[in-house]
Amino acid sequence: MTARAPQPRLPDPANGTGEVGEVGDAGDAGGVSRRRLLGVSGTAAVAGIVAGATSAYAVSQASAATAAQEAGPTTAPALGLDAAIPFRGEHQAGIVTPAQDRLHFVALDVVTKDRAQLRELLETWTRAAERMTAGAEAAPGGLVGGGPNRAPEDTGEAYGLPASGLTITIGYGPSLFDDRFGLADRKPAALEELPPFVGDQLDPKRSGGDLCIQACANDPQVAVHAVRNLVRMGFGVVAVRWSQLGFGRTSSTSTAQATPRNMFGFKDGTNNVKAEEPEGLDRHVWVAPEDEKGGGAWMAGGSYLVARRIRMHIEVWDRTSLQEQEDVIGRDKKEGAPLGQAKEFDALDFAKRGPDGTPAIPVNAHVRLAHESQLGGIRILRRGYNFTDGSDGVGHLDAGLFFLAYMRDPAKQFVPMQRALASKDLLNEYIEHNGSAVFACPPGLQDGEHWGQSLFA
Amino acid sequence: MSRPSLRRAAPAALALTCVLGVAACTDKVETSSSSTAAGTGGAAGPITVNATDTTCELSATTAKAGTVTFEVTNAGSKVNEFYLYAEGDRIVGEVENITPGLKRELKVEITEPGTFTTACKPGMVGDGIRAPFTVTGTATAGSADQKVAKAIADYKAFVASEADEFVEGTEKFVAAVKAGDVAKAKSLYAQARHPWEAIEPVAESFGDLDPKIDGREDVIAEGMAFTGYHRLEKDLWKDGLQKDSGAIADQLLTDVKAIAAKSKTVDPTALSIAGGAKALLDEVATGKVTGEEERYSHTDLWDFDGNLEGSRQALAALRPVITERDPALQKSLDARFTELSSLLGTHKAGADYKSYTALTDADIKALTVSLDALSEEVSKVPGVVEAT
């Protein structure tokens, strides 16, 4: 779990005690779950939380008969952890959506040669994804409606659980646009395999993929259920290439969220591009119509996803002194302030020198190398997750950061950033990139549309 | 070991013309404003359903057996669904994705009177707004299905033929073991077992005979001796023939003859045949493609072939039934059986299958991917043949 900022005490709209810090309870009239509210970092957000809680409460009252879980359009989606996130919109959900706590990510290869089957699957997936993000079974009556002799259409483990902020985000890998499905001329220009970087230790079994599905939710069971059911619908058309579970978000994608910590114990994603910066999103995250004028024009409003499995040498890090840890990262461990500053959100001052005359933020510190001022203004929207896949064969934690980042053009954003980091970052002593993939995530769907339409238009 | 479910289908309250799954038996007609009932049915004209976010009002809560038409209008603000359930929340018919303002039609065939349940489901989640719905009148006759009777007869004939082959193959194998001819016994082992792998779900239902014939050392029950094919496999490939190998071989032949005779007495149903077809593929998934079944001989691909052939033959018997009721499924089954058979065939060396140990990780994954694709389709067959 990530650490949370101190939680403000809020008046409780459900029972009026005024002593509740778990707004999630307001939407839990059915007693399904009790989860803690995401931390908040500012007073402005507190007002938002109160509004969100009230709204969630109203919904739970109004829909008691159907147990519907819905987020009203005015509800800040991060705030009711059980609420449903709208599936359709200008952009796909799961990108600027305030990062949920849990992830199940899967990369798939298309195994059919039949273009029509792939298109049909994308339609089937759209329908199921929309249902599941609303908190419904993957298919109508999926639990028991098929009667005793059929295999249930829905696997059932999320039945009765709230929507839990589930988002299902789809992406297409460069290999999908080879000669198999007649999609070569639909390939967006910016969708290219990443170049090799210094120090890469990439495992082909954790890399690449024709398609990806990112399922994020505030309940891991809901995220896993979504992927499991979509994979099942795809048998014969797609096959899983690799998958990754993430147990705690490492980035905030909204100012309403506290900055979480990564497995190194440091706050991560402080200066992320956030949902509340529309200009930043347009500049750094969303593909603009002028970016893709040819066959890839369908990507306008979409975003490119870079996924990297970054194994951390946890045991080595843990026996490293605090001073070195902070120098490697470039922030202090407790507050998360840039070295030489006092508060987390203070600006980084790369000119400032410490008492010994050396730069307060070392020249090869992670935050310096990754900072936009060092990279010609480049920024990306990070949406990564901490992972632990148990232990390796020698008793060390197989853990790290499953780095996910959304951007407008990987070649102009991730590639130069990672080149700078791969060659100089002090952190490289403690990490190893062993999985890598890039995907084109199409724009959001309007009413009546499905994923296959823009791709196969 | 798993067995196909011999459980009968739920009482056949549903129409025979409605067994292909919901999609095939519901007639979804979107209309704009004019309500043109596309069928009169048992009720006198369509039953209107006015669905809002909090209510679900039907113009009638009873109907006569036969074709019943519901005309569902979503007067609310949430996406709605309408269901007609039989007992146990089994879906008789449903319409989904009724967006606000839309009117859609659901036609269902109800052959037997009884109590059903209607439900509107605003927002798609939960149990919905429910009410009982009564169907009166007399049962409409379901026509006896000659095709199903023929399917059962065909499958019985297949089982009998495989059972005979199993006895013959075992006789030759046992003779080689008893003659101490290890090389010959090894060459006969996999093919002698092949017919068994094809009819295992039928044959394995007889008490201890299955573990006596086919039990692996690590899965036989406590207190039971390790006998049968896998004991001889261990002798032939690992330990060399033992003093009691001949006696084990004799007992094996006795047991095989017994199980072959009993297999011929089984009276399957269409549902149990379909369940057996699935169970055979489950065997492949959990024991063969993993290389667990034949740990000494590594002849798992022969067993794989036997299971696959058995599954294919079971569904071949059901083919006329499936083709009639769900032609798209039959087409998909054909394509996926062909695909997996071809893939498996690439691992042959001459007339023989390669050793499991010769497979690469990529080979095993490709077989698994193809097997998943087939199994998912085969798992739909029981739902198609259930109402017989």
Provide tags for this entry.
heterodimer; A: 457 residues; alpha+beta; four-stranded antiparallel sheet; B: alpha+beta; Immunoglobulin-like; A middle domain of Talin 1; 2 domains; five-stranded mixed sheet; 12 strands; elongated
Question: Any overview of this molecule?
Answer:
The complex is a heterodimer of chains A (457) and B (388). Chain A is an alpha+beta fold and 457 residues long. Helix content of chain A is 21%, strand content 16%. Chain A has 9 helices and 10 strands. In chain A, the strands form 2 sheets. In chain A, strands 5, 6, 7, 8, 9 and 10 form a 6-stranded antiparallel beta sheet that branches. The two termini of chain A are 43 Å apart. The model of chain A is unreliable at 1-78 (pLDDT under 50). Chain B is α+β, with helices and mostly antiparallel strands and 388 residues long. Chain B is built from 11 helices and 12 strands. A 5-stranded mixed beta sheet of chain B has the order 1-8-5-2-3, with no helix packed on it. The longest helix of chain B has 33 residues, at 146-178. Chain B is elongated, with a radius of gyration of 26 Å. Chain B starts with 21 loop residues before the first helix and ends with a helix. Classes of the chains: A alpha+beta (457), B alpha+beta (388). Chain A binds chain B through residues 62-63, 65-70, 111, 127, 131, 134-136, 140-141, 143-151, 163, 232, 235-237, 239, 447, and chain B through 5, 7, 9-10, 53-54, 78-79, 81, 83, 85-86, 88-91, 94, 96-97, 99, 121-129, 271, 332, 336, 365, 369-370, 372-377, 379-380, 382-383, 386. Chain A: It is found in: Cell envelope. Chain A: One of its GO terms (molecular function) is peroxidase activity. Chain A: It catalyses: heme b + 2 H(+) = protoporphyrin IX + Fe(2+). Chain A: Keywords: Heme, Iron, Lyase, Metal-binding, Oxidoreductase, Peroxidase, Signal.
